[in-house]
Amino acid sequence: MKTLDDLLAEGVSGRRVLVRADLNVPLDGDKITDDGRVRASVPTIKKLVDAGARVLVAAHLGRPKGGPDPKFSLAPVARRLGELLGQPVELGTETAGDGSVVLLENIRFDPRETSKDEAERGALADELAAKADAFVSDGFGVVHRKQASVYDVAQRLPHYAGGLVLAEVQVLHKLTEDLQRPYVVVLGGAKVSDKLGVIANLLTKVDRLLIGGGMAYTFLKAQGHEVGQSLLQEDQIEQVLGFLEQARERGVELVLPVDFLAATGFSADAEFDVVPFDAIPADRECLDIGPKTRELFAAKLADARTVFWNGPMGVFEFEAFSGGTRAVAEALVASDAFTVVGGGDSAAAVRALGLPEDGFSHISTGGGASLEFLEGKELPGVSVLEG
Questions:
Q1: pLDDT beyond 70 at 357
Q2: Disulfide check for 321: which of 131, 139, 287, 352 has CB 3.0–4.6 Å away?
Q3: Is there a contact between 166 and 3 (Cβ–Cβ < 8 Å)?
Q4: Residue 71 designated active-site
């Protein structure tokens, strides 16, 4: 796999370089509420700019349908990227002078970007390739997508892995090829169905699996416990029973919460009580793991040598129900293990809760890509770079 350093060694002054970045940030109107992905994209772009390249950045925002939509414009991202780079970033279609940066408008405004038709994606990739002399893949959050600006364009230009993608791939290989045990995975988030393949694959690899967040209630229901008004996927109970049996057969320690914060409703100021896992009131909705579970999970992480965490333990956006997610994060910060935060909501929670990002070995920028790798799937945007 050729890297950004290889490209820089070849010389880029005056050359046109297309960079696929991941700038899919959350917005409140036109205000970026978490600029983590923008900040993560800066090192690769800055190295190219400082070396005199003419940089054209392709990225997407959200899931626009069928064409341009002002609410998915990358204009706020262009402004923030310019602030971080210390130079103007134009939102346009063409590269300008040496050492300049132009951000293409949302690449998903063109339906060919995500088309299942190879010829349609190829036509867009041809247009992108005509604008550049080299391609740098630096959007790890999209490398699991077979899309025009991720996969097809890399087949048409000399291609290189950006610093961000290279670092992410090295971390993922460390989770599989250079693994130190005990290996503990913490999974949270809303739905079991989002992580079926991941759980199935992890049960063949991990020593201990901690389940929190909305997922936990389906596991408890599968064990015969009532979960009140808490998030539940009835259609996944049989699948979860299979996971519980697999864990027993393989000697994997599968750890579920032992208490919860049971709220009167889904709101930031809802009243709540701490209840044990086997006594959740029928009229209550659990929004976070309880204090005993926080201590239990911290203890189960204490002897780990490798930890992967994906998904919050509760509704961390509500301060009253952020304690479980904070407890897991703080346990990882205190750990001597190689700790990986698997992107998505987990990474957002670390920043929202004001925790030190350097307290973790690695915070991924691509939750979906990380999970698909752990599921054992190929990442097309990485495989094309290796090919």
A1: yes
A2: 287
A3: yes
A4: no
